[in-house]
Amino acid sequence: MKKSLENQVREKLRKRIFLLPNFAVDFLYLLENSKEIQTRFEYAKDISLFLEFLLYSHKCDKSTIKAIEPGDLDQLEDRDLIDFFDYLSSYQTSYISNTGRQVMKEFTNAPVGKARKLATLRKLFAYLFQKKMISKDITPNIEIRVPTKVKVKQRLSPDEVQRFFTTIMNDLSIENNRLLKFHEKVKHRDYIMTLLLAYTGVRISELVQLDISDIQLHKKTFVVTRKGGDEQEITMPEKIIEDISAYCEHRKKLTHVDHRDQNALFISLHRKRIKPSTVRALLDKYRLRSNVSIHVTPHVFRRTFGTNHYNTYEDMYLTAQVLGHASAETTRKFYADPSEERVNRSMKQFDYAQTETTLDNRGKLTSLAKRLGISVEELMKELG
C-alpha cells in the first residue's frame, strides 16, 4: 500500500480506536508489529460491530461501546455469539455521507464474511483469556460452515469485453436524460479503468492506488504497487496508450480535488480517490447495460486477461510475472486453462510414438514442466 493511502487508513483507525474500550485498543496495539495497517483496521471494524451488537441486543448494560468491560464479555454464552452471527445475515446501520447527510444502509454477510469476523473474535477472546481478563473463552465452541463447492472460474469472451467498451463510450442503454448527464461526467474515467483491467489484469487494489505520476507515457509503462508494497513497472499494450494519454491530460485539468488525493489517477465525483466499491458498482451497471449474463467483477477481468495472455504466449512464467504472482503455481492453478483451440489441437496431434519420444527426452520434459509451472518430479507423478 502506498504511503499516502496508508496514512489515510491509519487516520481512520485512530478515529475508530478512539471509540473503543481500553481492552480492545490494547489488543489492536499488540498487533502493530505482526499485521498490516489495513488488517488492523478491519479488526477494529469487526470488534466495533460486535460491541455495538451487544448494546443493540441489550446483552450488556452499558450506554456506549467505550464503556464495555472484559467482565461484560465474560457473562456471554454460546447462544449470544450465535445470535450475533445470525444478526450479521442482514442488519442496518447509519453513517454520515460525504455530503453530510445521515444515511441508513443495509448490510449482509455470507458465510465467508461471518467466518472472517469469527476469526477476529477468536483472537480477541484468546487475548483476553490469556491476560486473565475473562475466565472463559467461548469462541472455540462456534463454527461457521463455509461452502466448499468450487465456483466456476468465469471469464469474459472477446466479444463481451468489446461490448463493455462500446456500451461505455457510445452511451448505450441509458434510460433517461438525467442518467445520460451523469454518464457523460464519468464515462471517460470508467472507460479507462475498464481498459486497464482488461488489458493489464491489475488487481482492484492496484487500480485504485494508481497516481498520475505512475503513468510514464515517455516509456510506455506504468507502475503498480503490488501486495506487500512492492512496485512493478508494467509495459502498456500499444492498443491502449493513446487512450491512456488522452485521459491523463483530462485528469490533470480536474480542479478542487481533495488535497490528500491530488495525485490520484481516478477521482470520484466527490473529488476523492475512487474506492474499490465504486469500481465494482460501475462494472455491474455496465454489465447490465451491455447485456453480459455473468457477474462481472474486477477479478473476472483479471482472470480473463491472465487466461488469454497464457493461451497467447503459452509461457507460465511470463504470465505469472505480468500478473505479479510470486509463484507460477498460482498462475497454473487459477489462470492457465488451455483454450478450446489448444485442447482440440492437442487431440488432433496426439500420437503414442510422439508421447514416448517426448517422455524419453529429458530436455523436452523439463520444458513441459516449466510451462506447467511445476517441477519435473511433480510432472512425472502426474504422468503416473
What would the CATH topology of the largest domain be? hpI Integrase, Chain A
| Pattern of helices and strands | HHHHHEEHHHHEEEHHHHHHHHH
Query: How many E-type strands?
Result: 5
| Termini gap | 44 Å
Structural class by secondary-structure content? mainly alpha
Percentage of residues in strands: 5-15%
Q: In what order do the strands lie side by side in the largest sheet?
A: 3-4-5
Q: Largest sheet at a glance?
A: 3 strands, antiparallel
Number of helices: 18
Silhouette: globular
CATH superfamily of the largest domain: Intergrase catalytic core
Examine the secondary-structure arrangement and name the CATH architecture of the largest domain. Orthogonal Bundle
Helical residue percent band: 55-70%
What is the CATH level 1 assignment of the largest domain? Mainly Alpha
Uncertain spans, ≥5 residues at pLDDT below 50? Answer: none
Mean pLDDT equals: 86
Task: Name its key features.
single chain; 384 residues; mainly alpha; DNA polymerase, domain 1; hpI Integrase, Chain A; 3 domains; three-stranded antiparallel sheet; 5 strands; 57% helix; globular
3D structure, described in words:
There is one protein chain. With 384 residues, this protein is mainly α. The protein has 3 domains: 3-141, Tyrosine recombinase, N-terminal domain (DNA polymerase, domain 1), CATH 1.10.150; 158-308, Orthogonal Bundle (hpI Integrase, Chain A), CATH 1.10.443.10; 326-383, no CATH class. Helices cover 57% and strands 6% of the residues. The chain has a 3-stranded antiparallel β-sheet, with no helix packed on it. A two-stranded antiparallel ribbon has the order 1-2. A hairpin with a 4-residue loop joins β3 and β4. It is globular, with a radius of gyration of 25 Å.
